[in-house]
Amino acid sequence: MAEKKYVYTFGGDKTEGEGAMKNLLGGKGANLAEMAKIGLPVPPGFTVTTECCVDYFKNGNKLPAGVEKQVTTALKHIEKAMGMKFGDPKNPLLVSCRSGARSSMPGMMETVLNVGLSSKTIPGLIAKTKNERFVYDAYRRLIMMYSDVVMEKAEGIEPAEGKAIRRQLDAMLDELKEKKGYKSDTDLTVADLKSLCEKFKKQIKKTLGREFPDDSMAQLWGGIGAVLKSWNGKKAVAYRRIEGIPDDWGTAVNVQSMVFGNMGDTSATGVAFTRDPATGDNKFYGEWLINAQGEDVVAGTRTPNPLNEATSNEQNKHLKSMEKLYPSIYKQLCGVRETLEKHYHDMLDIEFTIQEKKLFMLQCRVGKRTGTAALNMAMDMLKEKLIDEKEAVMRVSPTQLDELLHPILDPKAEKKQTVITKGLPAGPGGAVGRIVFNSTEAVAAAKKGEAVIMVREETNPEDVEGMRAATGILTARGGMTSHAALVCRGWGKCCIVGAGAIAVDEVKGVLKIGGKTYTSKDYLSLNGSRGWVYAGKVATMDSSENPKLKNFMKLVDKFRKLQVRTNADTAADAEVARKFGAEGIGLFRTEHMFYGKNSEKPLFCLRKMILSNTKEERVAALKELEKYVKSDIKATLTAMKGLPVTIRLLDPPLHEFVPSEPAKRKELADALGIKVSEIAKRAEALHETNPMMGHRGVRLGITYPEVSEMQMRAILEAALEVGSVPEIMVPVTCDPREIKFQKAILERVAAEVAKKKKVAKIEYKVGTMIEIPRAAILADEMAKEAEFFSFGTNDLTQMTFGFSRDDIGGFLPEYLDQKIIDADPFQTIDTVGVGRLIEIAVKGGRSVRKNLKVGICGEQGGEGKSVAFCHKMGLNYVSCSPFRVPIARLAAAQAAIAEGRK
Ligand code: ADP
Ligand code: MG
Ligand code: MG
Question: Ligand 1: which of 95, 96, 259 to mutate, judged by most atoms within 8 Å of the beta carbon?
């Protein structure tokens, strides 16, 4: 069998990969190859494929056959391109070992820099560079990263809190700086660094029981192995769970020739976005540090300088920009920016290093952005003709749109408050919550449904679960490219970083701002779009009135084939949904009128009806109820005038409506002229073992036709008075004869209403919900009676899986963890099972009624993937809650565009 190709070179005179090979080379590797191909200055290197990682784990943590030989050959490629040799005492090449999966997982996996420095190569590098300080700075960095990543994490060692080797070495470094009165790492002298390196190595031996390896090749293999293992590191696994990234993708390993940003004042390193990732502004946005290596910018140990004048901020405006300090390099970088945007047709996130005034590109990827930025960039790039209309629609994800619809602090309420401190606007929107100081507290509070603001000195990858759980994040340190900023931007979470004037004591749980003390008993409000912090609770509001959003949605509607309706139970909901672009109501439940505000009277009538013992009693109660039902329906029909409205016949869980309080029971007994004990007896009789499958839906209309009759009359009269054609929907059916039975009643009632109202004929439509598997299977028969179908995918999912929706908490998490099912089927349609039934029903129904109108009204109707599935099934519409309407519109357009591209 031919050996697998596990290694691809890039840079120098031979680039084997390209940007399209992300699955195999990881995002970082593929884009390094692509940048090399289009002629950008990329230090040469090679990528060990993700396939190698997968095989490595399959192989019991052993490198698959052939890798060693291929790596050795590829190393020669770098040596040749650089004119240097790895491990050579005179002219030593140094490399980095960098992780990089298919999709970016910021800070979740490991990288080691300066690999190859040893007692054998150090003198040669000093002789060559004549820069001893630089060499020992590189060496101390290698020791710090290598001991942490390769010797501790990759070995699965879990040190006690605060005892991690990296922490210990950091503390030693800080101690030395303090002793000498240094402000910055750059103040350290050669002698300082030399002695530090020796102390570091002793500490490593003491803590980890092993020597720091003094051999270039041993370091390289250690680095490669550690990067592979970091795929299964604790934080990477936790992040994958949250992001839904499959475990079997694996990471690639990029081995790349080092370029040095720490060679003195004409060397530097930085990160940038080709446009502002928070606002979407067409401004080159970045941060850089003189005399530093890459990790310094992200770590937040020094406040980075602004890239240019236009984007300097509160935190860094006192520091020199590259535009001012090195105008010619800045110009070159601007050229790279333009080349990249033209090539990728998108906003890129880049890493670069300047070695003695020479620019090198170390990474590029399509940049994460807030929902606001995604929207603004899409519309701008369309105008710039960088992308076309379809692409613009594809550029905003349903989740990002969701974020745009999320609450912001109410500007009016905000104006009345004083800003207590400012930071950088890292994640958009507004957040209000109680203060917590760590991840555990945040998770615990979120479980109880409590909104919290997580306040930290700075966040690190171990905090992700708490960050996920919190409503907003506030940190004292870190810039726009810090961990907290990157993660929150990806999630669209409200976040403020680098609020330098706050003092956080995470252990004591104390936050100090401007002389005031706040604890976990206090509340904060954040304006993440501006970086402003307020004490206490500021009112929030939704942001649906954004004019840019409106233009974008117009574009969306150009490409969409599915209609989008809403599930609305009140006139108020209907109005909101109309504003969001709903094209009708797909599900109007009349039960809502028995809950909450103004429900007293109709509820009393309903209770009388439920507890009636004879038809006479029931008819009397229904008569009273009818006027409430009619006026309720009329209000919603009026709000939706001109648009279709599907009204579902009552499907109430009867037993839930029986009062338990003695006073209420007495009142009912009096009204019905019976004894209280009799109420108890009748209530007892209503008890069901399995109400979900009990006396509900159409079954009620069959045992008590007078219940259907009352509703039908109310609907027909209301519709006639408003001037709309109602769609009457029969719930919980499993056989065509149930519909036939209801239709007979409807035809009689319609004739009566026509006569009473003196009109020739009343127009209406009758259809059914498809929410029982039998109804789906008998769809051709059902369609002979029904003029439309609406998939009630909550019940359909429940009945198809046999999972009680209210009881899944007990087993669903385990099912997801064990990968027995891929996703919660109540959130996203199970396309293979429930979806199969939908397919059968659509085909069956349309085989007898060609123009059968088909929609979906379950919870999943507003979820991106489910909407795409409905598009594929050829449904006429999806119906979802009012706030999901824009999201469903977007998902429908994206599904149509994606289909056209195939
Ligand atoms: P991450 O995925 O966490 O960003 P990277 O692999 O990109 O990790 O590396 C961490 C830092 O080290 C980055 O700032 C990167 O630019 C820098 N770096 C990586 N490889 C090299 C190299 N060969 N020369 C100089 N700097 C490097
Ligand atoms: Mg990087
Ligand atoms: Mg139902």
Answer: 96
What one-character DSSP code corresponds to residue 326?
-
Q: Is the pLDDT of residue 57 over 60?
A: yes
- How much distance in Å is there from the Cα of 99 to the middle of ligand 1? 9
Whether residue 475 contacts residue 498, with contact meaning beta carbons closer than 8 Å, is answered with: yes
Residue whose structure tokens are 């250690």: 222
The confidence score (pLDDT) of residue 596 equals 66
Token look-up 């300082």 returns 192
What is the distance, to the nearest Å, from the Cα of residue 520 to the centroid of all Cα atoms in its chain?
27
When computed from its CA atoms, the radius of gyration of the chain, rounded to whole angstroms, is 33
Above 60 in pLDDT, residue 1? no
Cα separation, 277 vs 399, whole angstroms = 16
Least Cα distance to 430 among 416, 414, 448, 449 occurs for 414
Phi, psi dihedrals of residue 39, rounded to the nearest 5°: 85, 15
* Interatomic CA distance for residues 288 and 300, integer angstroms: 11
Span from the CA of 254 to the centroid of ligand 3 (angstroms): 53
Give, for 818, the enclosing helix (H) or strand (E): none
Beta carbons within 10 angstroms of residue 581's beta carbon: 17
**830 Cα distance to chain centroid:** 20
CB 540 within 8 A of CB 410: yes
Closest CA to 776 of 789, 788, 785: 789
What is the three-state SS of 254-305? EEEECCCCCCCCCCEEEEEECCCCCCCCCCCEEEEEECCCCHHHHHCCCCCE
Percent of the chain whose pLDDT exceeds 70: 99
Rounded distance from Cα 731 to ligand 3 centre (Å): 6
Please report which ligand is nearest the Cα atom of 271. Answer: 1
For the chain, report the end-to-end CA distance as a whole number of angstroms.
Answer: 35
pTM of the model: 0.80
Residue 865 CB partners (closer than 8 Å, separation 6+): 828, 829, 891
Pocket around ligand 1 at a 6 A CB cut-off: 43, 96, 98, 107, 111, 113, 256-259, 294-295, 351, 353, 362-363
- Give catalytic residue positions: 483, 857
Rounded Cα–Cα distance for residues 336 and 315 (Å): 27
